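Q: Give me the 3D complex with 1-O-phosphono-alpha-D-glucopyranose.
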Amino acid sequence: MIKKCLFPVAGYGTRFLPATKSMPKEMLPVVNKPLVQYGVEEAIEAGMNTISFVTGRGKRAITDHFDISYELEHQIAGTGKEAYLEGIRDVLERGIFTMVRQREMNGLGHAILTGEPLIGGEAFGVVLSDDLCITEGDGVLAQMADLYKQFRCSIVAIQEVPAEDTPKYGIIAGEQLKEGLYRVDDMVEKPQPEEAPSNLGIIGRYILTPDIFEILRTTPAGKNGEIQLTDALLTQSRQGCVMAYKFRGRRFDCGSVPGFVEATNYVYEHIYAEPE
Ligand code: G1P
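A: Here is the predicted complex, encoded as structure tokens.
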């Protein structure tokens, strides 16, 4: 059973400036709920109720969001507006929230390594909250946690991506074990289309075994001079096993303005319901 989930949330959100000048990009609302809360709910639904944020300067709004707001509670107690707080109250009751601050930014691999003291020696989930995943039935992390029970190794979520988009993703290649499940034997961070080993791109959901920390400690800087999780996972796949899983559901790239708008329209049309 995986109990912890790491959320690297220290990144800048440059593509959403000026909205993200003094507000974390993870707090941008998709309709009425901040992006990060979708990911946190997905983790809790998968049984990972310890939510660990790797946070940074200017990100206090995230940790405040996952805490009681006494003033607000007091203001609306007993009024018809209480229904608006039900969702977040439920998250607060079910989750335990921990955080560590990342003082310098040096890639996703470095962010994960910064989270080590919050995770320790157990397998854990990772959510990149820019990727909003919407499913019918089990969420993506729950699907992956199920697979973990069977394989006991790191798992990355993947989807087919258009050839011209490979420079936006970690791309995997591997042996297909069954429909939608691969044993990874190659992985490249953000390759040009002609160098991509396949069209299978990693999206922001991972289950990692804790030996990843030791590997990350000795992983040299890769793409863009940063410590890349993709490179550490390639090492892990060679030492043991890494699986890639084509998840059931839809993923929206909320790290880009068009993807964010698409997610907003989708959630408004299919999911959002105003409290009575
Ligand atoms: C990160 C990873 C990349 C992965 C992507 C998924 O990149 O480095 O391998 O495909 O997340 O969203 P980022 O989008 O943070 O640049």
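A quick observation: Residues 4-272 form a domain with the Spore Coat Polysaccharide Biosynthesis Protein SpsA; Chain A fold (CATH 3.90.550.10).
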